[in-house]
Design a protein that fits this description.
The chain has helices at about 20-30, 85-90, 100-115, 135-140, 155-170; strands at about 1-5, 10-15, 50, 55, 70. By secondary structure, it is an alpha+beta fold. A five-stranded mixed beta sheet has the order 2-1-5-3-4, with helices on both faces. Strand 3 and strand 4 form a beta hairpin. Helix 2 packs across helix 5. The radius of gyration is 16 Å and the shape is globular. The mean pLDDT is about 95. The structure holds FE2/S2 (inorganic) cluster (2 copies). The site of one FE2/S2 (inorganic) cluster has 12 residues, from loops. One FE2/S2 (inorganic) cluster binds next to loops.
């Protein structure tokens, strides 16, 4: 079947088996291999991308469900010589070891910062009406869908926190 998606700002047309996951369409058909396949079962977060600005596990959704959608992958955030703030903060704070989970962590953190800015509470937020400050516990909870086998978690949280502080100061 034919599917059209805007991926990282570019219109893409794909002719796919209807059973193709969004993750496989991105990696195998569009050759955007920055998005990683960890578990392929919705358990690790390595495959996180943004769909219309919201984070999603791309292994758990079919590409066919996203005809006309806007997809952002790690390749759409910054370039090697022009990292975006989160990418730069992960480098600065030592937020990765092997780096396999890193694209998913950064995409999830991007979505998480947007959700927090919109006042969405998390399971640990004291105030359900929003305005949560992004404490270490808030960041840990909001990033709990992203696993890192190397346990770089303290540095990942530090990187996200530094960007949250920078955004709050702007
Ligand atoms: S590969 Fe999608 S959650 Fe693990
Ligand atoms: S840096 Fe290795 S799995 Fe996260």
């Amino acid at each position: 079947m034919d599917i059209r998606m805007t991926v990282n700002g570019e219109e893409r047309s794909l002719d796919l088996d209807p059973r193709t996951s969004l993750l496989d369409a991105l990696r195998d058909d569009l050759r955007l291999t920055g998005t990683k396949k960890g578990c392929d079962h919705g358990q690790c977060g390595a495959c996180t991308v943004l769909v219309n600005g919201r984070r999603i596990n791309s292994c758990l959704t079919l590409a066919a469900m996203h005809d006309g959608d806007e997809i952002t992958t790690i390749e759409g955030l910054g370039a090697e010589d022009n990292l975006n703030d989160l990418q730069a903060a992960f480098v600065e704070c030592d937020g990765f070891q092997c780096g396999y989970c890193t694209p998913g962590q950064i995409m999830s953190a991007t979505g998480m910062l947007n959700e927090a800015a919109e006042g969405m509470p998390s399971h640990v937020s004291a105030d359900l009406n929003g305005g949560a400050d992004l404490s270490d516990a808030e960041i840990a909870e909001r990033m709990s869908g992203n696993l890192c086998r190397c346990s770089a978690y303290p540095f990942i949280r530090k990187a996200i926190s530094s960007v949250a502080e920078k955004e709050a100061a702007e």
